[in-house]
Protein backbone atom coordinates (compact mmCIF):
# COMPACT_ATOMS: atom_id res chain seq x y z
CA UNK A 1 0.00 0.00 0.00
CA UNK A 2 1.22 3.49 -0.90
CA UNK A 3 0.49 5.84 1.99
CA UNK A 4 0.87 9.60 1.64
CA UNK A 5 1.37 11.69 4.77
CA UNK A 6 0.38 15.35 4.75
CA UNK A 7 2.86 16.88 7.22
CA UNK A 8 2.44 20.44 5.90
CA UNK A 9 1.76 21.85 9.39
CA UNK A 10 5.35 21.15 10.47
CA UNK A 11 7.91 23.97 10.55
CA UNK A 12 11.45 24.53 11.84
CA UNK A 13 10.30 25.43 15.37
CA UNK A 14 7.57 22.87 16.08
CA UNK A 15 4.99 23.31 18.81
CA UNK A 16 1.52 21.88 19.38
CA UNK A 17 0.39 20.32 16.11
CA UNK A 18 3.98 20.39 14.87
CA UNK A 19 5.24 18.32 17.82
CA UNK A 20 2.43 15.83 17.23
CA UNK A 21 3.29 15.59 13.53
CA UNK A 22 7.03 15.27 14.08
CA UNK A 23 6.70 12.43 16.60
CA UNK A 24 3.89 10.49 14.92
CA UNK A 25 5.51 10.57 11.48
CA UNK A 26 8.94 9.57 12.79
CA UNK A 27 7.45 6.60 14.63
CA UNK A 28 5.39 5.62 11.57
CA UNK A 29 8.69 5.52 9.68
CA UNK A 30 10.04 3.09 12.28
CA UNK A 31 7.07 0.71 12.31
CA UNK A 32 5.87 0.73 8.68
CA UNK A 33 5.78 -2.71 7.01
CA UNK A 34 8.36 -3.36 4.31
CA UNK A 35 5.53 -4.00 1.86
CA UNK A 36 4.07 -0.53 2.47
CA UNK A 37 5.51 2.75 1.20
CA UNK A 38 5.32 6.12 2.93
CA UNK A 39 5.43 9.37 0.96
CA UNK A 40 5.95 12.30 3.34
CA UNK A 41 5.02 15.82 2.20
CA UNK A 42 6.90 18.36 4.29
CA UNK A 43 8.67 21.72 4.04
CA UNK A 44 11.31 20.56 6.57
CA UNK A 45 12.73 17.33 5.10
CA UNK A 46 15.68 17.44 7.49
CA UNK A 47 13.46 15.91 10.20
CA UNK A 48 13.08 12.64 8.29
CA UNK A 49 15.32 10.06 6.64
CA UNK A 50 14.61 8.52 3.25
CA UNK A 51 14.69 4.74 3.07
CA UNK A 52 13.84 2.16 0.43
CA UNK A 53 10.14 2.41 1.30
CA UNK A 54 10.10 5.99 2.64
CA UNK A 55 10.06 8.89 0.18
CA UNK A 56 10.24 12.56 1.20
CA UNK A 57 8.60 15.25 -0.96
CA UNK A 58 9.72 18.85 -0.34
CA UNK A 59 6.84 21.33 -0.36
CA UNK A 60 6.91 25.17 -0.35
CA UNK A 61 8.11 26.78 2.89
CA UNK A 62 5.22 29.26 2.77
CA UNK A 63 2.95 26.48 4.11
CA UNK A 64 4.67 26.75 7.50
CA UNK A 65 2.52 28.11 10.40
CA UNK A 66 5.07 30.83 11.19
CA UNK A 67 3.85 32.75 8.12
CA UNK A 68 0.44 33.28 9.76
CA UNK A 69 -2.65 33.95 7.62
CA UNK A 70 -0.54 33.87 4.47
CA UNK A 71 0.47 30.28 5.30
CA UNK A 72 -3.10 29.25 6.13
CA UNK A 73 -4.36 30.49 2.75
CA UNK A 74 -1.44 29.03 0.79
CA UNK A 75 -1.61 25.69 2.63
CA UNK A 76 -5.29 25.34 1.75
CA UNK A 77 -4.52 26.11 -1.91
CA UNK A 78 -1.53 23.74 -2.00
CA UNK A 79 -3.49 20.86 -0.41
CA UNK A 80 -6.36 21.22 -2.86
CA UNK A 81 -4.26 21.64 -6.02
CA UNK A 82 -0.61 20.54 -5.92
CA UNK A 83 -1.06 17.78 -3.34
CA UNK A 84 -4.08 16.31 -5.12
CA UNK A 85 -2.20 16.30 -8.42
CA UNK A 86 0.79 14.62 -6.78
CA UNK A 87 -1.36 11.97 -5.08
CA UNK A 88 -2.73 11.00 -8.48
CA UNK A 89 0.73 10.95 -10.05
CA UNK A 90 2.15 8.80 -7.25
CA UNK A 91 -0.87 6.44 -7.42
CA UNK A 92 -1.40 6.78 -3.68
CA UNK A 93 -3.82 4.37 -2.02
CA UNK A 94 -4.51 6.45 1.11
CA UNK A 95 -3.72 9.93 2.45
CA UNK A 96 -3.17 10.51 6.17
CA UNK A 97 -3.21 14.14 7.36
CA UNK A 98 -1.80 14.72 10.85
CA UNK A 99 -4.22 17.64 11.31
CA UNK A 100 -7.66 18.74 10.08
CA UNK A 101 -6.06 20.18 6.91
CA UNK A 102 -7.16 17.68 4.27
CA UNK A 103 -8.26 17.98 0.62
CA UNK A 104 -11.85 19.09 0.19
CA UNK A 105 -12.73 16.60 -2.58
CA UNK A 106 -10.82 13.43 -1.73
CA UNK A 107 -12.36 10.25 -0.37
CA UNK A 108 -9.38 8.03 0.41
CA UNK A 109 -8.13 9.99 3.39
CA UNK A 110 -7.86 9.93 7.17
CA UNK A 111 -7.59 13.19 9.10
CA UNK A 112 -6.76 14.01 12.72
CA UNK A 113 -8.95 16.57 14.50
CA UNK A 114 -7.19 17.74 17.64
CA UNK A 115 -9.86 20.05 19.04
CA UNK A 116 -12.77 22.31 18.12
CA UNK A 117 -11.23 25.44 19.60
CA UNK A 118 -12.38 27.80 16.80
CA UNK A 119 -15.96 26.70 17.46
CA UNK A 120 -15.81 26.85 21.26
CA UNK A 121 -14.03 30.22 21.24
CA UNK A 122 -15.03 32.28 18.22
CA UNK A 123 -12.14 34.76 18.42
CA UNK A 124 -12.36 37.61 15.90
CA UNK A 125 -9.15 39.40 16.88
CA UNK A 126 -7.39 38.75 13.57
CA UNK A 127 -8.06 37.75 9.98
CA UNK A 128 -6.26 34.46 10.58
CA UNK A 129 -8.62 33.54 13.44
CA UNK A 130 -11.68 34.51 11.38
CA UNK A 131 -10.43 32.33 8.51
CA UNK A 132 -9.87 29.45 10.92
CA UNK A 133 -13.37 29.73 12.38
CA UNK A 134 -14.93 29.78 8.90
CA UNK A 135 -12.80 26.76 7.92
CA UNK A 136 -14.20 24.76 10.84
CA UNK A 137 -17.77 25.86 10.14
CA UNK A 138 -17.96 25.53 6.35
CA UNK A 139 -15.06 23.46 4.99
CA UNK A 140 -14.20 20.89 7.66
CA UNK A 141 -17.74 19.36 7.68
CA UNK A 142 -17.33 18.47 4.00
CA UNK A 143 -13.90 16.93 4.56
CA UNK A 144 -15.31 14.89 7.46
CA UNK A 145 -18.20 13.72 5.30
CA UNK A 146 -15.87 12.32 2.62
CA UNK A 147 -13.06 10.97 4.85
CA UNK A 148 -12.82 7.26 5.55
CA UNK A 149 -11.98 7.77 9.22
CA UNK A 150 -11.48 10.60 11.71
CA UNK A 151 -8.77 10.26 14.34
CA UNK A 152 -9.07 12.41 17.44
CA UNK A 153 -6.93 12.73 20.55
CA UNK A 154 -9.40 12.49 23.45
CA UNK A 155 -12.87 11.21 24.30
CA UNK A 156 -13.84 14.82 24.97
CA UNK A 157 -12.98 15.91 21.43
CA UNK A 158 -14.65 12.80 20.02
CA UNK A 159 -17.93 13.65 21.75
CA UNK A 160 -17.60 17.27 20.55
CA UNK A 161 -17.20 16.10 16.94
CA UNK A 162 -20.19 13.74 17.20
CA UNK A 163 -22.33 16.52 18.63
CA UNK A 164 -21.27 19.43 16.43
CA UNK A 165 -20.79 17.69 13.07
CA UNK A 166 -23.45 14.98 13.55
CA UNK A 167 -20.95 12.20 12.81
CA UNK A 168 -21.51 8.55 13.67
CA UNK A 169 -19.28 7.47 16.58
CA UNK A 170 -18.05 4.48 14.56
CA UNK A 171 -16.34 6.81 12.11
CA UNK A 172 -14.17 8.36 14.83
CA UNK A 173 -11.21 6.66 16.52
CA UNK A 174 -9.81 8.12 19.74
CA UNK A 175 -6.03 7.77 19.92
CA UNK A 176 -4.30 9.60 22.76
CA UNK A 177 -1.21 11.76 22.28
CA UNK A 178 2.15 10.68 23.63
CA UNK A 179 5.22 12.48 24.92
CA UNK A 180 8.94 12.24 24.24
CA UNK A 181 10.18 9.75 26.84
CA UNK A 182 13.78 10.45 25.89
CA UNK A 183 13.31 14.10 26.84
CA UNK A 184 10.72 14.31 29.60
CA UNK A 185 11.89 12.58 32.76
CA UNK A 186 12.92 13.86 36.24
CA UNK A 187 16.21 15.80 36.26
CA UNK A 188 18.21 15.66 39.51
CA UNK A 189 20.19 18.79 38.64
CA UNK A 190 17.14 20.80 37.57
CA UNK A 191 17.23 23.45 40.30
CA UNK A 192 20.88 24.34 39.76
CA UNK A 193 20.45 24.29 35.96
CA UNK A 194 17.42 26.61 36.01
CA UNK A 195 18.99 28.98 38.52
CA UNK A 196 22.19 29.08 36.50
CA UNK A 197 20.48 29.77 33.18
CA UNK A 198 17.41 31.79 34.16
CA UNK A 199 18.27 33.05 37.65
CA UNK A 200 15.01 31.79 39.17
CA UNK A 201 14.18 29.47 42.06
CA UNK A 202 11.23 28.53 44.26
CA UNK A 203 8.49 28.92 41.67
CA UNK A 204 5.27 27.51 40.32
CA UNK A 205 5.09 27.05 36.56
CA UNK A 206 2.63 27.85 33.77
CA UNK A 207 3.40 26.86 30.17
CA UNK A 208 2.12 28.13 26.83
CA UNK A 209 0.47 31.55 27.20
CA UNK A 210 -0.78 31.44 23.63
CA UNK A 211 -4.46 32.40 23.68
CA UNK A 212 -7.04 33.72 26.20
CA UNK A 213 -8.63 30.29 26.74
CA UNK A 214 -5.43 29.29 28.57
CA UNK A 215 -6.92 31.39 31.37
CA UNK A 216 -3.64 32.61 32.84
CA UNK A 217 -5.25 35.93 33.75
CA UNK A 218 -7.22 34.05 36.43
CA UNK A 219 -4.02 32.36 37.57
CA UNK A 220 -2.26 35.72 37.94
CA UNK A 221 -5.21 37.04 39.94
CA UNK A 222 -5.06 33.91 42.13
CA UNK A 223 -1.42 34.69 42.97
CA UNK A 224 -2.65 37.76 44.87
CA UNK A 225 -4.61 35.42 47.17
CA UNK A 226 -1.98 32.75 47.89
CA UNK A 227 -0.64 32.50 51.43
CA UNK A 228 2.99 32.25 50.33
CA UNK A 229 3.82 35.81 49.23
CA UNK A 230 7.37 34.86 48.20
CA UNK A 231 6.53 32.14 45.71
CA UNK A 232 7.04 33.20 42.09
CA UNK A 233 4.94 32.34 39.06
CA UNK A 234 6.91 31.64 35.88
CA UNK A 235 4.94 31.85 32.64
CA UNK A 236 6.95 30.17 29.89
CA UNK A 237 6.33 30.48 26.16
CA UNK A 238 3.24 31.63 24.32
CA UNK A 239 2.31 34.29 21.80
CA UNK A 240 2.98 38.02 22.00
CA UNK A 241 -0.60 39.34 21.95
CA UNK A 242 -1.92 37.36 24.93
CA UNK A 243 1.40 37.49 26.77
CA UNK A 244 1.47 41.30 26.49
CA UNK A 245 -2.01 41.42 27.96
CA UNK A 246 -0.83 39.27 30.87
CA UNK A 247 2.19 41.52 31.42
CA UNK A 248 -0.10 44.55 31.58
CA UNK A 249 -2.32 42.76 34.11
CA UNK A 250 0.74 41.87 36.19
CA UNK A 251 1.69 45.54 36.40
CA UNK A 252 -1.84 46.57 37.33
CA UNK A 253 -1.83 44.06 40.21
CA UNK A 254 1.67 45.09 41.38
CA UNK A 255 3.02 41.59 40.77
CA UNK A 256 6.01 42.40 38.56
CA UNK A 257 8.39 40.93 41.16
CA UNK A 258 6.37 37.73 41.54
CA UNK A 259 5.14 36.95 38.01
CA UNK A 260 7.99 36.48 35.53
CA UNK A 261 7.83 35.72 31.81
CA UNK A 262 10.17 33.62 29.69
CA UNK A 263 9.21 34.38 26.10
CA UNK A 264 10.76 31.33 24.48
CA UNK A 265 11.98 28.15 26.13
CA UNK A 266 14.04 25.69 24.05
CA UNK A 267 12.46 22.24 24.04
CA UNK A 268 15.50 20.78 25.81
CA UNK A 269 15.02 23.18 28.76
CA UNK A 270 11.39 22.27 29.41
CA UNK A 271 12.07 19.09 31.44
CA UNK A 272 14.37 21.11 33.72
CA UNK A 273 11.69 23.80 34.20
CA UNK A 274 9.14 21.11 35.08
CA UNK A 275 11.49 19.20 37.37
CA UNK A 276 12.53 22.29 39.35
CA UNK A 277 8.99 23.68 39.75
CA UNK A 278 7.01 23.28 42.97
CA UNK A 279 4.02 22.50 40.74
CA UNK A 280 2.52 23.16 37.30
CA UNK A 281 -0.73 25.13 37.21
CA UNK A 282 -2.73 24.64 34.02
CA UNK A 283 -6.16 26.29 34.40
CA UNK A 284 -7.18 26.08 30.72
CA UNK A 285 -10.84 26.49 29.82
CA UNK A 286 -10.61 24.02 26.95
CA UNK A 287 -8.06 21.52 25.61
CA UNK A 288 -8.25 18.84 22.97
CA UNK A 289 -5.63 16.98 25.00
CA UNK A 290 -3.21 19.19 26.94
CA UNK A 291 0.44 18.15 26.61
CA UNK A 292 1.99 20.29 29.41
CA UNK A 293 0.28 18.38 32.26
CA UNK A 294 1.49 15.08 30.76
CA UNK A 295 5.03 16.37 30.29
CA UNK A 296 5.04 17.76 33.83
CA UNK A 297 3.90 14.47 35.36
CA UNK A 298 6.59 12.62 33.41
CA UNK A 299 9.17 14.97 34.98
CA UNK A 300 7.92 14.43 38.53
CA UNK A 301 6.15 17.78 38.76
CA UNK A 302 2.79 17.91 40.64
CA UNK A 303 -0.07 19.15 38.47
CA UNK A 304 -2.98 21.45 39.28
CA UNK A 305 -5.36 21.61 36.33
CA UNK A 306 -8.94 22.25 35.25
CA UNK A 307 -11.79 19.82 35.73
CA UNK A 308 -12.98 20.59 32.20
CA UNK A 309 -12.69 19.20 28.64
CA UNK A 310 -10.02 16.51 28.14
CA UNK A 311 -7.79 17.37 31.10
CA UNK A 312 -9.28 14.83 33.54
CA UNK A 313 -8.58 12.12 30.93
CA UNK A 314 -4.91 13.09 30.75
CA UNK A 315 -4.22 13.62 34.45
CA UNK A 316 -6.49 10.95 35.95
CA UNK A 317 -6.29 10.84 39.74
CA UNK A 318 -2.73 12.14 39.80
CA UNK A 319 -3.52 15.85 39.92
CA UNK A 320 -5.57 18.40 41.83
CA UNK A 321 -8.61 19.42 39.79
CA UNK A 322 -9.99 22.95 40.00
CA UNK A 323 -12.82 25.01 38.56
CA UNK A 324 -10.88 27.29 36.19
CA UNK A 325 -13.46 30.06 36.56
CA UNK A 326 -12.88 30.31 40.34
CA UNK A 327 -9.87 32.45 41.28
CA UNK A 328 -10.31 31.48 44.93
CA UNK A 329 -10.28 27.75 44.10
CA UNK A 330 -7.09 28.11 42.07
CA UNK A 331 -5.41 29.94 44.97
CA UNK A 332 -6.55 27.33 47.52
CA UNK A 333 -5.22 24.50 45.35
CA UNK A 334 -1.83 26.21 45.10
CA UNK A 335 -1.72 26.73 48.87
CA UNK A 336 -2.69 23.10 49.49
CA UNK A 337 0.04 21.69 47.24
CA UNK A 338 2.78 24.06 48.46
CA UNK A 339 2.03 23.51 52.15
CA UNK A 340 1.61 19.72 52.17
CA UNK A 341 4.82 17.88 51.31
CA UNK A 342 3.17 14.47 51.74
CA UNK A 343 0.55 15.45 49.18
CA UNK A 344 3.26 16.63 46.78
CA UNK A 345 5.09 13.31 47.08
CA UNK A 346 1.88 11.39 46.47
CA UNK A 347 1.08 13.53 43.41
CA UNK A 348 4.59 13.03 42.03
CA UNK A 349 4.35 9.26 42.44
CA UNK A 350 0.90 9.04 40.87
CA UNK A 351 1.91 11.42 38.08
CA UNK A 352 4.92 9.36 37.06
CA UNK A 353 2.69 6.28 36.95
CA UNK A 354 -0.02 8.07 34.96
CA UNK A 355 2.48 9.35 32.40
CA UNK A 356 3.59 5.80 31.59
CA UNK A 357 0.20 5.17 29.98
CA UNK A 358 1.15 7.45 27.09
CA UNK A 359 3.85 7.26 24.40
CA UNK A 360 4.29 8.51 20.84
CA UNK A 361 5.16 5.01 19.68
CA UNK A 362 1.83 3.73 21.00
CA UNK A 363 0.08 6.64 19.26
CA UNK A 364 1.76 5.84 15.94
CA UNK A 365 1.04 2.10 16.26
CA UNK A 366 -2.66 2.75 16.77
CA UNK A 367 -2.77 5.19 13.83
CA UNK A 368 -0.99 2.68 11.61
CA UNK A 369 -3.54 0.04 12.62
CA UNK A 370 -6.34 2.33 11.43
CA UNK A 371 -4.47 3.00 8.16
CA UNK A 372 -4.06 -0.75 7.54
CA UNK A 373 -7.72 -1.46 8.30
CA UNK A 374 -8.87 1.17 5.81
CA UNK A 375 -6.35 -0.06 3.24
CA UNK A 376 -7.62 -3.63 3.46
CA UNK A 377 -11.21 -2.48 2.81
CA UNK A 378 -10.32 -0.68 -0.41
UniProtKB/TrEMBL annotation:
Q: What is this protein called?
A: Glycosyl transferase, group 1
A Gene Ontology BP annotation from the UniProt entry: lipopolysaccharide biosynthetic process
The reply on keyword Transferase is yes
Q: Which UniProt keywords apply?
A: Transferase
Please state every residue range assigned to the domain named Glycosyl transferase family. Answer: 196-353
Which domain of life does the UniProt lineage start with? Bacteria
Task: Extract the GO molecular function terms from the UniProt entry.
Answer: glycosyltransferase activity
Glycosyltransferase subfamily 4-like N-terminal domain: which residues?
15-181
| SUPFAM superfamilies documented for this protein | UDP-Glycosyltransferase/glycogen phosphorylase (SSF53756)
Report any Pfam family annotated for this entry: Glycos_transf_1
